[in-house]
């Protein structure tokens, strides 16, 4: 009797599964975290792998905290993971980035799209790249883009005004799609001084815009094969639909960035860009290439062209998609709460010009409060992961009971995954109060003292994270959002174009708005817009 030959794919899957089974048994017997309180695994093999992958685990984590305490453990495949809401522990994790790093499987998975830019590198390589990239994101550099933000926001306002004129007094539009276009236009000009023209309604579609659209729509629900590729990197030699789209987008972004880099180098060598031009508005790539070629930077610390291309890929993705998502959730909330929309518009109209300075926008207190509340309750990334790169201990502000004894430090073994729930911290009732789940901009006038312990870089939350891996471009995103809101809300009244209960968040890495009744349509935010007329 002859044996049926197995395909290489089946052999690889079986080998990976058997190896993981062996590791599960070994880990369960040896890991000290098994003594921490936590939930029973629903699967002997997978633990909570599928639940963690297929949905946002925030609500699951919050339920566990209520049942077992603020520092717990649970299993994903062979790994016993640590989850903590203890802000002292989180501050320790985020400030000790040499010990607690992004897991290899996470970095390589995301790198399929953006490469190894500052977002994903660790250790000395991260410090080298951040030293070169950081000057491009200083407050003065970001402030210089105010005119660009206003130009693109006004262009979008005029497009939406035309839609209203065509349809009569009210038009229904997919606002997320238009915000995505505006943000892509902005990042291409800000990063490369290149007009991609996605807001030009008469322009033909281009390959870069199409690539981003494919990535955004690649998954609105998480499936089994991408999960296996994530947890078992060896399986990534076998492509699937999402990885093919990522590879295509990465190729298109790389070719785009490579052309722009060659142009910048030629311009600099020909002395066509002087310091006066750069000070007026220096794009990200010019600042990056200048810093990398500067005489003050030792030869051994300079970045390769491929690394600069990866930084450009990172800027393209992180610089437009995340801002578009934040803007969409901002406008969703002002449409959901008309009283907030009216109060905010009154404040915006107190500025007697359509082209405010950043100082004038910064003076708008209620705008700042609403933005802080949006960022708090609608983080683009709901959770993050770290892994211990060596045996260490983790301090706690709230002792945990281990074998009947209260411990204010816990032993963390090398290789232990640590789950950081950004959204859970941002709405933790023990920190923010019993109304922490409610959208209340007024809370920022009288914050509980407890939130000062949250180790975030901005506004007492973890949305932009903290430590050396905090978001470099958070000022860029916040200022772009303020300008867009200022321009659109002065021109339009907004109303949701679907029932509020039909609006959900895509169960993907980035929490884009979607229509729950039509998830296959991809990210969207239908909105009714009417021209605002002062009485």
TrEMBL record:
GO terms for molecular function: heme binding; iron ion binding; monooxygenase activity; oxidoreductase activity, acting on paired donors, with incorporation or reduction of molecular oxygen. Its cofactor is heme. It comes from the Eukaryota. Heme binds at residue 471. Pathway: Secondary metabolite biosynthesis. Signal peptide: none annotated. Keywords: Heme, Iron, Metal-binding, Monooxygenase, Oxidoreductase. Transmembrane segments: none annotated. Belongs to the cytochrome P450 family. This is Cytochrome P450 monooxygenase. The lineage of its organism: Eukaryota, Fungi, Dikarya, Basidiomycota, Agaricomycotina. The gene is CYP5139BB1.
């Amino acid at each position: 009797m002859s044996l049926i030959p197995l395909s290489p794919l089946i052999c690889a899957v079986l080998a990976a599964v058997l190896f993981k089974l062996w590791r599960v048994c070994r880990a369960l017997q040896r890991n000290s975290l098994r003594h921490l309180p936590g939930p029973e695994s629903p699967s002997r093999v997978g633990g909570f792998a599928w639940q963690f992958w297929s949905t946002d685990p925030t609500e699951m984590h919050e339920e566990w905290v209520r049942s077992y305490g603020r520092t717990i453990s649970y299993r994903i495949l062979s790994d016993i993971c640590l989850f903590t809401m203890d802000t002292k522990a989180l501050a320790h994790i985020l400030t000790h980035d040499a010990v607690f790093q992004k897991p290899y499987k996470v970095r390589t998975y995301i790198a399929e799209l953006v490469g190894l830019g500052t977002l994903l590198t660790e250790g000395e390589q991260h410090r080298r790249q951040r030293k070169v990239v950081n000057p491009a994101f200083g407050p003065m550099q970001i402030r210089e883009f105010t005119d660009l933000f206003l130009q693109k926001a006004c262009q979008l306002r005029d497009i939406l005004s035309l839609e209203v004129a065509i349809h009569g007094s009210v038009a229904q539009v997919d606002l997320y799609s238009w915000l995505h276009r505006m943000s892509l236009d902005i990042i291409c000009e800000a990063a490369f001084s290149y007009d991609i023209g996605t807001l030009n309604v008469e322009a033909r579609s281009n390959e870069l815009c199409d690539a981003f659209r494919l990535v955004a729509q690649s998954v609105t629900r998480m499936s089994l094969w991408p999960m296996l590729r994530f947890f078992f990197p060896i399986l990534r030699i076998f492509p699937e639909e999402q990885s093919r789209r990522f590879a295509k987008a990465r190729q298109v972004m790389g070719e785009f960035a490579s052309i722009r880099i060659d142009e910048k180098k030629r311009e600099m060598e020909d002395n066509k860009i002087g310091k006066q031009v750069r000070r007026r508005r220096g794009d990200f790539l010019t600042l990056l290439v200048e810093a990398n070629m500067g005489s003050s930077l030792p030869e051994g610390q300079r970045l390769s062209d491929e690394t600069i291309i990866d930084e450009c890929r990172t800027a393209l993705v992180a610089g437009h998609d995340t801002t578009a998502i934040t803007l969409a959730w901002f406008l969703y909330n002002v449409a959901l709460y008309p009283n907030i929309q009216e109060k905010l518009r009154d404040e915006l109209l107190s500025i007697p010009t359509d082209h405010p300075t950043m100082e004038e926008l910064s003076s708008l207190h209620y705008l700042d409060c609403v933005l802080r509340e949006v960022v708090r309750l609608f983080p683009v990334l709901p959770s993050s992961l770290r892994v211990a790169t060596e045996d260490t201990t983790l301090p706690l502000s709230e002792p945990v009971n281990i074998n009947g004894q209260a411990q204010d430090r816990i032993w963390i073994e090398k290789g232990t995954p640590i789950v950081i729930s950004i959204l859970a911290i941002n709405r933790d009732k023990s920190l923010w109060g019993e109304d922490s789940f409610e959208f209340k901009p007024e809370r920022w006038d009288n914050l509980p003292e407890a939130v000062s312990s949250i180790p975030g870089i901005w506004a007492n939350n973890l949305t932009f994270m903290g430590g050396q891996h905090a978001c470099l471009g958070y000022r860029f995103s916040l200022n772009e959002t303020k300008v867009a809101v200022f321009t659109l809300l002065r021109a339009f009244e907004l109303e949701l174009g679907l029932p509020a209960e039909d609006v959900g968040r895509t169960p993907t890495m980035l929490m884009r708005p979607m229509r729950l009744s039509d998830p296959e349509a991809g990210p969207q935010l239908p909105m009714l817009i009417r021209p605002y007329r002062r009485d």
